[in-house]
Amino acid sequence: MKMQSLSIVVPAKKCINNCKFCVSKTNDSEYENFINSNNLYFDLYFKQYKERMEYARDNGCNSVMLTGDCEPQQNRQFLMLFGIMNKELGKPFRNIEMQTTGTLLTDDYLYFLRHHVGVTTISLSVSSLSDIQNNRIVSPARDIKLKSLISRIKKYQFTLRLSINLSNYTFAHDNYNELFKKLKDEFKADQLTFRVLYDSGTDKPEDLWVRNNKISDDFIGNLNSYIKEKGRFLEKLEFGADRYSVMGMSVVLDDDCMSTSGKDVLKYTILRPNAKLYTKWDDKGSLLF
Q1: What is the Cα 265 distance to its own chain's centre?
Q2: What is the number of structural domains in the chain?
Q3: What's the pLDDT tens digit per position in 23-39?
Q4: Residue 17: which of 109, 78, 110, 100 has the closest Cα?
Q5: Residue 247 sits in which domain range?
Q6: Rounded to whole angstroms, how far apart are CA atoms 34 and 135?
Q7: 6: which residues sit within 8 A by CB, 6+ positions away?
């Protein structure tokens, strides 16, 4: 089975953010962290971890996404190890992305990510174009000033993808032409992913927040129509989503962020800190290798 992307779960004890819709908080972590220098068998797990990375490469995977139940930048030591492991592969990953809200990303940290870890794309998770509202939803360790952060990301020549979490707080209006111009001119996006928020079906605060603040189906339908009418179709991605070019930006509408539907191509595989590969975020039974 072909794999499109490898999601690397960066280990951390607790996320420094407190996102109101965070799907990670609806599931308790059950995976031990073997990738740390204090582990007696570190050399064994280091080798095992690299083998899983190579397995993904052998099955057609060309992209890595640094992500997890926390902000990846919380664990600099792990990111340093990942950079070393990747360089030691017979065929290193060239396309390395990082999913983050951007909190704590200083100039020095961005330099480290670009030149040591090899990150090429920052996938910036945005819940509102208003800094005040975005910070209310994310509750970061330090307030995020989006335009200032984006300026620093651009300074180090990262590709910038805005991963926009769709809720009633995301946009102040539904003038799609004006919205896309704003995302291009003011927020300097190279790529856009509009993400429909995931509801795992529990009565936990995160799922209730998603239900109570879900953006309307009409907005999503009209957004999809605008993308198709105004954009140029580029290709169908391997996991099924269509990719368009709108105003010179790559645009994808993702309505299956947890990859819940069955397909012949894996949207991603997930490499956990226990040095094993899985195909689902919320099911230990999805162990692959």
Answers
A1: 19
A2: 1
A3: 775 455 578 888 877 77
A4: 100
A5: 5-286
A6: 33
A7: 53, 56, 61, 63, 64, 65, 93, 268, 269, 270, 271
